Amino acid sequence: MTEDNAARATDVARAYYDTDDIDAFYAHTWGGEDIHVGVYEDEVYADGQAGIAAAAGRTVARMAAKAGDGLGPGTSVLDLGSGFGGAARRLAGEFGCRVVALNISEVQNTRHRELNARRGLDDRIEVVSGSFQDIPAPDASFEVVWSQEALCHSGDRPGVLREARRVLKPGGRLVFTDIMIAEGAPGDVLRSVAERLRLTDFATPGFYEEHLRSLGFTDVGFEDLSDHIETHYRHLAEAVRTPSPGLVDGVSSAYIDQLRTNLPQMAAACRDGHVRWGIFHGRRT
Asked: How many CA atoms lie within 13 A of 147 on its CB side?
């Protein structure tokens, strides 16, 4: 049954990210190249998509610090659910490591490869189409396994964590973020968000910490950055309230209307403490 759930969730995620509306929304509103949640500074937010992209870069920097000496020339990183490849390009460009970017959406992967070539990084980043439920790599292949807001799409999250551990070298680091529900939050509080993202449920921070420890990871930690996801969704809600010409041209009016309802609901759930987001890290023994 777990395998069926994982396969079904994989198909749903692929269909979601290959949809024209979804692809255009991420490309024109959500940072352009790095389509993940950002870490925001205290300055007044006034620079639209560029500000979202800068915040996403701060997330990569904080995650990279937790990966420690796993990042550097000659090291190998596996990015699970790599999207348009913003993190992969930062890791390859700033640290000189080799990145294997595993992602289910061929639409995103095509854009990812084009951006890598434009940046002159296609020799350091290999974009692989596939599922993180069955990682196409031998045991003990990577110094770092990395993921950002991708595991929420899994129908078998413990299975993804087992796969991540399998492909890590002894002493390697697992570093990831995810969108989660708070412990004890009302069960239906994120229903509309789950429907938009085509998810069946959300994990909690305690779920991930428990499973990481049960798999034998050491130095397990969670940096709670939930305040930033509220800021992130408030900015996204503002962006679709007065959409850019690119968003209007690329996204259907029906989907923009859905976003205008859904994104403020997500921001409100974050404000009310029902949503959790932050950085998990652990070392494989």
From this structure: 25
Distance of CA 208 to the CA centre of its chain: 15
- Average pLDDT estimate for 175-198: 90
d(CA 58, CA 122): 23
Measured distance CA(165)–CA(51) in Å, rounded: 34
Give the separation between CA 10 and CA 200, rounded to whole angstroms: 12
SS3 164: helix
Burial 47-84 (b: 16+ CB within 10 A, else e): eebebbbbbbbebbebbbebbeebbeeebbbbbbbbbb
Tokens of 22: 């979804």
Nearest to 135 by CA among 111, 161, 155: 161
**What residue spans of the chain are helical by DSSP H?**
2-17, 20-28, 48-67, 86-95, 106-119, 157-167, 191-197, 205-214, 226-241, 245-250, 253-271
Give pLDDT tens digits for 18-66: 899 988 888 887 766 788 999 998 544 545 556 778 889 999 999 999 9
pTM (predicted TM-score): 0.93
**Cα gap 242→264, rounded to integer Å:** 14
